[in-house]
Amino acid sequence: MTQTDDFILQTRGLTKEFKGFTAVSEVDLNVRRHTIHALIGPNGAGKTTVFNLLTKFLIPTRGSIAFNGRDITNAKPAEISRMGVVRSFQISAVFPHMTARENVRVALQRKLGTSFHFWRAAKSLNKLNDRADELLGMVGLERFSEAIVADLPYGRKRALEIATTLALEPEMMLLDEPTQGMGREDVELITQLIRKVSANRTILMVEHNLGVVSTLCDRITVLQRGALLTEGTYAEVSADPRVKEAYMGKAA
Amino acid sequence: MKKYSGYLIALGLLMLAPTMIYPVFLMKLLCFALFASAFNLILGYGGLLSFGHAAFFGGASYITGHALKVWGLPTELGILFGAAVAGLMGLAIGMLAIRRHGIYFAMITLAMAQMAYFLFVSSPFTGGENGLQGVPRGTALGMIDLQNDMSMYYFVLAIFVIGFLIIARTVHSPFGQVLSAIRDNEDRARSLGYDIERYKLLAFVISATLAGLAGGTKTVVFQLASLTDVHWHMSGEVVLMTLLGGLGTIAGPAVGAGIIITLQNYLASGPLAAWVPVVLGVIFVICVLAFRRGVVGELRELIKRQF
Ligand SMILES: Nc1ncnc2c1ncn2[C@@H]1O[C@H](COP(=O)(O)OP(=O)(O)OP(=O)(O)O)[C@@H](O)[C@H]1O
Ligand SMILES: [Mg+2]
Questions:
Q1: Whether B189 contacts chain A with CB within 8 A
Q2: Does B249 map to a domain?
Q3: Co-location of A156 and A210 in the same domain
Q4: Could you say which of A24, A221, A244, B134 is the most buried, measured as most Cβ atoms within 10 Å of its Cβ?
Q5: Which of A14, A25, A27, A47 to mutate to test the pocket of ligand 1 (most atoms within 8 A of CB)?
């Protein structure tokens, strides 16, 4: 972990209210460059809402967000993505009627600048196949490049999602519960994968599996009822009695 | 090549068809086949249910009619002009509707199309209830006399093939890939950096333009543009054709249009004439309940299971 005060992503007083109900309340988040940062908290704590705010899928009621020192509070989701912050979703986000290779290619093709060309043959995208297969290989999907994604098992879909995200070479990845609903083996696989792709990148992840958090994450922020409860290393956070209390009665 | 053999056979049959079947009927069929295929681009591949496509089909039909009859434009130019105006209407309506989803999108497109309908009813140039009559067919490329039904047929077939190829290419293009991605998972496409509204809007404009191409061509065939072409019934009929033939299949909507037009023609002269809407309604219900993929979709599924 690089111990600089170089924050890639910062929020100040980030707040989101839904018709009087405060889902996220005055959150100051500081994510250091080139770290794996976890956002944890009980169900309904507001983690996904924070992700939606950071990636502009929701508009904050109050507060500001800065990426690389630049205010992005009023940017649009697609802009955020083009700046280098790419998210995954809590429910696997793939294009089910396309093949695995086509899924990755959708991410790769934007750089070609031909995405509005409706008169050009789709064959022109074949030059991206090698890179797409390489990315599929990285997540152990080399054998599935021609498979229709709807037919893939859940764990594979999540792996594909990571490959698609990687295709954009994002500076920062936001992963919403990447191991949710997975068996032990798949969890192990995804954990290793995240470690592998974290080189030279920043990762902010929501994760319920504290085993995964403890092995992967450099820093942990705990949310409770929309507010920031505490932040620190795994050792610090897990020793905090308030965190234990927040999770009390929970399986975690 | 094998991939295209089905289409080449279909084209061969269409070339021979007017020797056996009444050409005016065939031309009507081709116009609606193109209309339904254009509609499918936005519903089947864009995932957007437009309930206002009659505005583009019927709008172009009036514009083309006016351009040929009053301005005396050459036939091809008149048709292209009608299609271009339909495209602009698509841009205007699309910009208002494209951010909405599902039923809201359908409602806005319907409302806008109704506005267009009232505009056309009350404009003097459309001839109101009587329609715009006596549109000259003119000549194709300044030399082929279109008054002859056979020449007219091949002219319409050429337009249909061009329109169909544009649709097929659009579906299988880099743009088509993004469009399918958006249909499959809008949020994911957005998170990959695509401004999805702009893609949907382009698809909508292409769809409207080609619907206009079909409408303008129909005016030339029948030498008439009438209120039925802009009426919301027409928007509903094209939904039915597309669903019946097979949503999101390249050939499906054309097949669906063929079935509906043939049925309408057949029933209109029989004892069931007054019951045409009921029969079509029943077909629609059966189609939705039993053949959810439509005729072409179900066939494709069958073939897939056989091999
Ligand atoms: N669009 C919305 N409208 C109203 N309330 C919402 C909306 N989205 C989320 N909420 C509420 O905000 C709170 C936080 O939800 P959020 O999904 O962010 O929690 P989470 O921490 O991701 O939970 P989980 O661990 O279950 O994924 C919940 O009480 C939820 O019901
Ligand atoms: Mg969540």
A1: yes
A2: yes
A3: no
A4: A24
A5: A47
Residues A70, A119 within the same domain: no
Distance B31 CA to ligand 2 centre (A): 50
Per-residue pLDDT of chain A (252 residues; tens, 9 = 90+): 344 458 999 999 999 999 989 999 999 999 999 999 999 999 889 999 999 999 999 999 999 999 998 999 999 999 999 999 999 888 878 999 999 999 999 999 999 999 999 999 999 999 999 999 999 998 889 999 999 999 998 888 988 999 999 999 999 999 999 888 788 888 888 898 899 889 889 999 999 888 899 999 999 999 999 999 999 998 898 888 888 887 764 544
For B192, which of A102, A114, A168 is closest by C-beta distance? A168
ipTM for the predicted complex: 0.87
Q: How remote is the CA of residue A68 from the centroid of ligand 1, in Å?
A: 27
Q: A251 and A176 share a domain?
A: yes
Is A109 within 8 Å of B196 when comparing Cβ atoms? no
Q: Which of A212, A217, A215, A210 is nearest to A251 (CA)?
A: A210
CA distance A152 to A155: 8
* H-run or E-run covering B63: helix B53-69
Query: How far, in Å, is the centroid of ligand 1 from the Cα of A186?
Result: 26
Q: Report the CATH number at residue A76.
A: 3.40.50.300
- Pick from A14, A15, A18, A50 the residue to mutate for probing ligand 1's pocket: most ligand atoms within 8 Å of its CB: A18
Q: In angstroms, rounded to a whole number, what is the distance separating the alpha carbons of residues A189 and A213? A: 14
**Interchain CB distance below 8 Å, A122 and B191:** no
- End-to-end CA separation in angstroms for chain B: 19
Please check whether residue B226 lies inside any domain of the structure. yes
| Final residue of a structural domain among A142, A169, A196 | A169
A118–B206: do the CB atoms touch at under 8 Å?
yes
**CATH classification at residue B93:** 1.10.3470
Residues 214-253 of B with CB under 8 A from A: none
pTM of this prediction? 0.89
How many angstroms separate the most distant Cα atoms in chain A?
62
Contact check, Cβ <8 Å, B174/A110: no
What are the tokens at A192?
């290793």
Q: Say whether residue B172 is in contact with chain A using an 8 A CB cutoff.
A: yes
Q: Are B179 and B199 in contact (CB under 8 A)?
A: yes
Put simply, the chain B residues between 54 and 73 with a CB less than 8 A from any chain A CB are none
Residues 6+ apart with CB under 8 A from B187: A57, A89, A93
Please count the other Cβ atoms lying within 10 Å of the Cβ belonging to residue A222. 23
**Domain residues for B244?**
21-306
Shortest CA gap B140–chain A (Å): 26
CA dihedral B7, B10, B16, B21 (to 10 degrees): -150
Q: Does A162 share its domain with A118? A: yes
For residue A51, the chain B residue with the least C-alpha distance is: B191
